[in-house]
């Protein structure tokens, strides 16, 4: 295993309920370091580009609308095996299927409003981090 970086978003359903600190506590308790963090209002163009891989899916429009419905917190996380570790800490996409103690089990409202995003590969993590961060805004 190696130290990796992954990209995280605390989504609008979580910022709306003032859960940024609660989500960050789960992240930090899992041994991941938050080495970059910024609160932004995503534009429609940013959300469309970020989720372009899902453009043909029936929920794409709803997803873009949700991700632009309120502020999000974009983050760079670092740690041993961070990509897989964060996917584990997040829990399944559908909170009804998420394991106990995971962020989605604890906080997600539905499969669409599921509180957090995490990269699914190291390659995508690098692409997603670069969409929102410059190296000057990351300190490991
Ligand atoms: P994940 O966020 O676990 O990587 P994904 O990449 O398959 O899941 O989908 C991206 C987001 O799209 C997901 O977090 C919420 C939304 N989504 C996925 N499947 C959905 C569905 N069946 N109905 C509504 N929204 C969905
Ligand atoms: Mg995904």
Automatic annotation (TrEMBL):
Major role in the synthesis of nucleoside triphosphates other than ATP. The ATP gamma phosphate is transferred to the NDP beta phosphate via a ping-pong mechanism, using a phosphorylated active-site intermediate. Residues 3-140 form the Nucleoside diphosphate kinase-like domain. This is Nucleoside diphosphate kinase. The gene is ndk. HAMAP family: NDP_kinase (MF_00451). Its cofactor is Mg(2+). ATP binds at residues 11, 59, 87, 93, 104, 114. Signal peptide: none annotated. It catalyses: a ribonucleoside 5'-diphosphate + ATP = a ribonucleoside 5'-triphosphate + ADP; a 2'-deoxyribonucleoside 5'-diphosphate + ATP = a 2'-deoxyribonucleoside 5'-triphosphate + ADP. InterPro entries: NDK-like_dom, NDK-like_dom_sf, Nucleoside_diP_kinase, Nucleoside_diP_kinase_AS. GO terms for molecular function: ATP binding; metal ion binding; nucleoside diphosphate kinase activity. It comes from Hyphomonas atlantica.
């Amino acid at each position: 295993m190696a130290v990796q970086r992954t990209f995280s978003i605390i989504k609008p359903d979580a910022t709306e309920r003032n859960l940024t600190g609660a989500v960050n506590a789960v992240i930090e308790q899992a041994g991941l370091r938050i080495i970059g963090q910024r609160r932004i209002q995503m534009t429609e163009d940013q959300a469309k580009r970020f989720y372009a891989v899902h453009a043909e899916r029936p929920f794409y429009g709803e997803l873009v609308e949700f991700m632009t419905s309120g502020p999000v917190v974009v983050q760079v996380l670092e740690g041993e095996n961070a990509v897989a570790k964060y996917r584990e800490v997040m829990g399944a996409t559908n909170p009804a299927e998420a394991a106990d103690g995971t962020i989605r089990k604890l906080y997600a409202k539905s499969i669409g409003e599921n509180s957090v995003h995490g990269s699914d590969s190291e390659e995508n993590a690098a692409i997603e981090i670069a969409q929102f961060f410059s190296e000057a805004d990351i300190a490991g």
